[in-house]
Every structure is written in structure tokens, then in C-alpha cells.
């Protein structure tokens, strides 16, 4: 390894800055050149002069911000290097949501992988995480405590379907984030054999249509417009988490309120969301998967960007790896997309 990455990869007020390439990774404000890992708004902001991302992330940003979200958009294919000044940049699958990417930086003999948000479980809506050996691994730690061990996804969906059978005269209203979680819950339901239409709050429609247009099999879905409470008995309805207790939900037939998130492991969070049926379905790696990923990439040094750093720092120190916490701001969407 040549120059240590901490000499050329800097934490700034607006995000992680690669000095020899003169670009930022997921900056929190407009910059001349940004490399974007995925489309969640705490990582993908509008107003950059130039954006490098996957085609799917660019499409998501266009839906969210309009086609002029950046001055210039450069599309990168997974595994194909792009030279930016002195740095070779390669986007790799992260398994978080459609189009999500890790960022591999190669400079002066060093290999640094910035994970972005990621998970390790199978997901029909995106390409699986690809562990790549590196000298420094920069990882998220949203669920970086031993208490966060997510149950198998299919068991959580089974609980939902069992509840539907138990309460056939009620609808099930599930709070899901509009990008990623909504479409993942839909595919999990389809994998479990649920073939009825899935009804959506209008705020979920545009991104769900984008997923369908990109070839993700979601089955029949539609918005609620024109449907009566009687017609919605026994049906599954998806909405943003903020709509669970909104006036909008009063039209539904005695809804069983549910929420799909890794945070549903914490009872206080479930009560806060008003979730009668908390579903532990996460788009982030849990504790065991974080540790496994560090083993898989075999990085002697790990930097932690956000989340529960202390537990992971302690575990990595015991394993003989160097570890440090980075203080990156602007991750307010983590609560919703987890």
C-alpha cells in the first residue's frame, strides 16, 4: 500500500472527499463532482454539477428531483472502472435497493471500498452485495449492536399473512419507505404466494412504477382511488410510515397497523410508530452480517461512517483490526429506509 488513505480521503462538512480525484461520495450539499451510491435522499441530493452513479440510481433521482437533478450525469456499470483524475473508481453491487452501489477507489497502490448502505440477504429487487478485498473498508453501522439480529424475511411475511387470515374483515396497513422497502415487501409477498392486488398510497406509486418498468416483478398493484371500505376488507395496503396515523387511513376498514423496518426489533420504536404488527424487515445488514462482511472483504482497517459505532469498534478491535469512527452528517433518512 502506498500513501495511507487517510492522507487523501477526507471527512468534510458536506461529506467524504477524495482529494486526488476532486470528488465527493454522497455529499450533503451541491458540489462540482459527486459519486452517488444510491437514491435515498440522505445520499442522493440534487444540484451537483456532475454525478456518477448507476443507471438505476440516475433514474430514481430523475423521478424524485426531475430530469435536471444534475448538470451532467455519468452512468457507470457495475464492475467497470472509471478514471476520475488520478483515481480509478468502480461501482459494485451493494444489495440495498435498486441500483445501490459500493464505491471502490484505487489510488497509489491502495484499495478503499465505501460500502454505502447495504444488506446481505437475497432481494429480488436488486443485485446482491459483492464483497471485494480491500485495504480499508468504510462501512455503515445502522444496526451495529448485538441486539440487532434480523429474523428471516419469510417468517415475518408469514406472520403478516397469518394475521390477515385471523382478521379477514380488517385490512392490513403497512408502513413502508417509498424507495426500496415498499417494493421489497411486495416481492416478499409474491414469493410467499400472495397473488391478490396490493394497494398503495399515492406517494408510493411513482417509484413502484419505476421498479416495474425496470423489470422487477411486483404483481398487480394499484392506488386506493374509488375503493370503498367494504372492498378493502382482507386486503393489504402499503403507505408511507407517516401515513399510518394520518387522517387518510380513516377510510380503511379497521386497519391492522403494521410497520416494516429493522427498528421494529425495538419495542419502543414499534409503539412510537403505532404498529400493532411490527415486522422486522430491514434493508440494512444486521450485527452478524456486518461482522461477516468485514471478514469477507478481509480489510485490515475499517472506518465506520454512521450508526452504532461503539459496539462495532469494540468487536473489530478484539479481532485485531484497526477501526475508527467517521463523523458524517446528513443521514436523517436512515430511520425511514431501515
Automatic annotation (TrEMBL):
- KW Ligase (keyword) present: yes
What would be an example GO MF term here? ligase activity
User: Is Hydrolase included in the keywords of this UniProt record?
Assistant: yes
Which InterPro entries would you find in this protein's record?
A: MBL (IPR050698), RibonucZ/Hydroxyglut_hydro (IPR036866), Xnuc_lig_assoc (IPR026360)
State the EC number(s). 3.1.-.-
Q: Which UniProt keywords apply?
A: Exonuclease, Hydrolase, Ligase, Nuclease
Q: What is this protein called?
A: Ligase-associated DNA damage response exonuclease
